[in-house]
Amino acid sequence: MPKAKSIFACRECGAQFPKWLGQCSECGAWGSVAEEAPLPAKAIVAIAAKTPAAIREISTLEGKRISSGIESLDLVLGGGFVPGSLTLLGGEPGIGKSTLLTQVSGLLASKARRVLYLSGEESAAQVKLRAERIGATGDSFYLANCSELTEAVAFIEGADPDLLIVDSIQTMHSSDAESAPGSVSQVRQCAATLQQIAKSKEVAVVLVGHVTKDGSLAGPKVLEHLVDTVLSFEGEGFGRMRAVRAVKNRFGSVDEIAVFEMTERGLEDVPNPSAALLAERNPDAAGSAVFPAMEGSRAVLVEIQALVAPNYANNPRRSVVGLDYNRVMLVLGVLEKRCGLRLGAHDVFVSAVGGLQIREPAADLPVLLAVASSLKDVPVPPDLVAFGEIGLTGEIRSAGSAEQRLKEAARLGFSRAAVSKHLKQSHGVPGMKLGAFRTVQDALALLAP
Ligand code: TYD
Ligand code: MG
């Protein structure tokens, strides 16, 4: 038999190469390519015929979903954890992954569910301290410090859990595999083994995954394909508000978000995110506009802030937090060209307050109003919300889910909305006056001093 050739794989994206590279030519990451032990090839021998089951005979686990005990998290999951499935929870260090899962463990244990929490990063005593602080104790909450796969399997056999938490998948390694912990093949092998166990024992498994600087799930891009659900924990990491959203979900929609606030007793569900996000807003300040954003099936009011300050150096700065950088640049371009506002000698900072990541083009209009408001030093009317996409010719386009956005704004006491002229008036909501504008020039009339 010829000697199996070793291959080199990128830890970030999983791309394989015949030789070592300093920079991955697929994803561009530096120093991420490492040697991987080759998988032994197996020959396929005689195969007997097998009859697949008819679809109506197949039983689903839908009815056996395990509620996490946190209503909004259940919504994100599509109704709770599915036994036999793998969920990956990704997020930056310190955002609250371990906290959230400890809470869920406590809640499940209090309902006589068996939970096994395997921590590779912290000792059992450390996890216990946290669990006690947030009141997550229960007789069927089992804890172990474990980072080796065979040992993990033994713990699973011993505890026979309904929910298994592996914190984190990057610290888990198999001593059978030759490559280093954290490498692609290690992570993949551990996840695959855990998946087999999940399926055969009908355990719901949650894997914690770290996220790299650029926001992608570190290394295990491969994992995203393997697991059933990918949840992403978002937030500034320093702000109070955190959001969990599904990036992929084989058992539900990917639209819902759960919003939490970090307190000294762990994460608290925020049932009314709009009110919380606007709580510290100063409505009379220039440079602030309110955007009714759509987060899945619900509208959330987010404050968009802008600061336009004179720049005395050569390079005016542009900084965008929580919004799409390119869309904000487009809005700045439209303001220069179509409205004659001179931003070239100014630094421009734009941010969505509260740590939510806004990807909707409908945020263009509130961004425009906030920037113009800051430049002119004239506040946006305090009872006004705005939404609408802005085109390159300065036209304001209508955005979807108008009714829901308006309802949420009305609910929180706003009485006016700046929208596109093209928005159907039938979308009107009682108590909401619509100011319909065709172009950005028209909309700037809102900022008349
Ligand atoms: P942690 O859940 O360990 O984050 P991760 O597992 O995602 O790395 O902790 C998040 C941060 O939250 C940590 O810096 C401490 C803080 N924290 C609180 O403010 N209140 C609490 O009750 C807990 C448990 C943590
Ligand atoms: Mg942690």
What this model shows, in words?
With 449 residues, the chain is α/β, with parallel strands linked by helices. It has three domains: 1-40; 64-271, P-loop containing nucleotide triphosphate hydrolases (Rossmann fold), CATH 3.40.50.300; 276-447, Ribosomal Protein S5, domain 2 (2-Layer Sandwich), CATH 3.30.230.10. Helices cover 25% and strands 25% of the residues. It has eleven helices and 21 strands. It has helices at residues 71-77, 97-109, 124-133, 149-159, 184-201, 221-226, 273-278, 325-339, 364-376, 402-411, 440-443; strands at residues 7-10, 16-17, 33-36, 86-91, 115-119, 141-145, 163-167, 204-210, 229-234, 241-249, 257-263, 266-269, 288-295, 298-310, 318-321, 346-352, 384-386, 389-390, 396-397, 416-420, 433-437. Strands 6-5-7-8-4-9-10-11-12 form a nine-stranded mixed sheet, with helices on both faces. Strands 13-14-16-15 form a four-stranded mixed sheet. The protein has a three-stranded antiparallel sheet with strand order 2-1-3, with no helix packed on it. Helix 8 crosses helix 9 (364-376). The structure holds thymidine-5'-diphosphate and magnesium ion. Magnesium ion binds at residues 97-98, 121, 167.
